[in-house]
What we know:
Chain A: InterPro entries: Leu-bd, Peripla_BP_I. The complex is a heterodimer of chains A (428) and B (358). Helix content of chain A is 45%, strand content 14%. Chain A has 428 residues and is an alpha/beta fold. Residues 1-22 of chain A have low confidence and may be disordered. With 358 residues, chain B is an all-alpha fold. Chain B has a domain at 22-266. In chain B, the strands form two sheets. In chain B, strands 1-4 form a two-stranded antiparallel ribbon. Chain B is globular. Chain B starts with 12 loop residues before the first helix and ends in a 5-residue tail after the last helix. Classes of the chains: A alpha/beta (428), B mainly alpha (358). Chains A and B meet through helix 1, strand 2, helix 3, helix 4 and helix 6 of A and helix 2, helix 3, strand 4, helix 11 and helix 13 of B.
Amino acid sequence: MNMKLKLTTLALGVTLAAGPAMAELVFPSLSYRTGPYAANGIPFADGYADYFTLLNERDGGIGGEPIRMIECETGYNTEKGVECYESTKGEGALVYQPLSTGITYQLIPKATADGIPVHSMGYGRTSAKDGSVFKNIFNYPANYWDGASVAVKHLLDVNSGSLEGKKIALVYHNSAYGKEPIRTLEELSKKHGFELSLLPVDHPGQEQKSQWLQIRREKPDNVIMYGWGVMNQVAIQEAANIRYPMDQFMGIWWSGSENDVRPAGEKANGYKALTFHNVGDDFPVFDDIQKYVVGTGKAAGAGDQIGTALYNRGLYAAMLAAEAAKTAQGIHNTKAITPAQMRDGMEALEITEAKMTDLGLPGFGPEFSVSCENHGGNGLVAVSQWDAAADSWSLITGYEQSDQDVLTPLIAEDASAFAAESGITPGC
Amino acid sequence: MLYRESGDFSSSYAEDSQTFPIKFDRYRYYFVMFIAIAVIPFLINDYWVNSLFLPFLIYAIAAIGLNILVGYCGQVSLGTGGFMAVGAYACYKLMTSFPDVSMLVHVLLSGLVTAAVGVLFGLPSLRIKGFYLAVATLAAQFFLVWLFNRVPWFYNYSASGQISAPERTFFGINITGANTQAWATYLFCLMFVIFSAYVARNLTRGSVGRKWMAIRDMDIAAEIIGVNPLRAKLTAFAISSFFIGISGALFFAIYLGAVEVGEVFGIQKSFLVLFMIIIGGLGSIFGSFAGAAFLVLLPVVLKIVGVDWLGWPTDIVAHLQLVIVGGLIIVFLIAEPHGLAQLWRVAKEKLRLWPFPH
Lengths: 428, 358
């Protein structure tokens, strides 16, 4: 009981000690370098941190304003995510990128009430694309439903335009994240006449024998995977064990990192994964990273992830955040922007090829622009394939747009349900 | 000097059987209650509520519940996470079905629903004991989590399978949802903590608690002296689950706001609450509080010291925390099996004799 006393004294002590410093642009990084999802969490966190370090070292921050990145370990755990959110929001956090669908769901109402934007890039709640309802939530440039739709489009291309009578299995992380694409895939299966079977894998996903036994028995023509963390490696290993043809096995972008395919070695050759940005380190920005970040010994983590798929995604996320901050500085004509101004910047964000070339990232991602009605970009997704001999990913298609005829009504339906549930009047 | 029985005379039965027979203890209790009810609500902000007070208060309720079952009645349970999930989903279904009813009613009803489920899963305890019962409750844990993941009715057919707490009020004040005040959620949870601790303390002092303890110490002897094992064990399961259900409902509705059953109410939660009562002290209400405070505070304090002050990498601190908690559990099991509560008890004993110890 006297714990409470101690707490109060501690509370007073800490509030006095940690006064917020408002002269910097604060970007919290809700990362996870521990637990079953660390293999995927580390490269992303390193990429996110390194890009901000690069901006600080090379340009002195964004528009001359230094960046302060606060890293907070969530372990992909929602309770720790809440703690991280609460402990960093008082520091003037401009945007949250929690890299976890579960934490995003938590933050959607909280961040909206606090007026802080959330950028769930390629994860989170898909219907957040509807900016008239989700005013503070952004999920550009692509979302889970885009992923599902482009996966099916790719299969259509491969199967010369028809999936009639084909069997497609979805192996998914049995959580909000993995369940997201089911609705879309069900709609698409009606439209294209393929048969969909669902195979949930429970957290953390180390045990998948029964799911792959079922795949061996049912022999689906294609397997789509929505996995994360250790689940990816295990699934690819299991697929290799039952000799499932790798080129008929496709993962969402969260199931497409080097760490996922390497454990299966040669057998993972030909595995496909979706992506919404380019792969590899053949971009001018990586020279700057070598010079300003690695060269000065400021690389995040062990510094061994540079150029991997998820490192690039972390870098891309940081780049989009920095560009949005620049846009916000332009709109509001101030350097020290507030979270509300950052939100305006994100809503006015425009990514063009010229801009990316300027940043040393030519052709790194699709062009897109954000508006109040559309917080999700254009849904342009490409397919990449793993080459085990060369130990690298390569894009095998261009950026294709998802099936908007199917997705738009689904998004409108889910967004209006959320608006009704939480008493929001949609409007721009 | 201050801490002693002498000079404190009881002149009625009620006074004689009060919870805190020593004056110093009594005033300390009043003082803590005063601070908790009348001082803290004015000082706290979102960070203190969401990072420390809410988890502490809610885990304290869960620990009290589990302590009744494990500490007082001796029935080992690994189903805490599952029972908390029952409370959370019951609360969600009630909140969405009856939006106009006060949250107080919803939370209490969720506790009752969980009590019923707890009794159901407690039935095997009449035949099996010890490790075998632990395995049976483990089955409850996995079954319940599977059930809430599998049956869409429980999450109102939402596409993601998540449950999110809509805005609900208590006497017109927002308690759940995004637009809550720190003091309101704190006081709402505090109310349940005081209620739970009061009820649990008085149950365990009374005839019901004595029956539980008789069963715990030796069930055959207890049966011979006239304790009905069926009733004793099932009441323990019911009351324990009632509290755990309340904590699950608060955990979902007030603290997290959105829950995914496999992640939040998984087996780790069962172990966490079990560790709380092991570190805090089996068979002690104070121990439930001490254990909950310890395991909620430790990661936060480690993070503040390690990351914010010393500037260590976040992953090192996170790993260090696992090492420390693991080490502490071993230390407690060897050095002080009765937990923090026993340390407190020994300290009080020493104080009574001070300044002339034997």
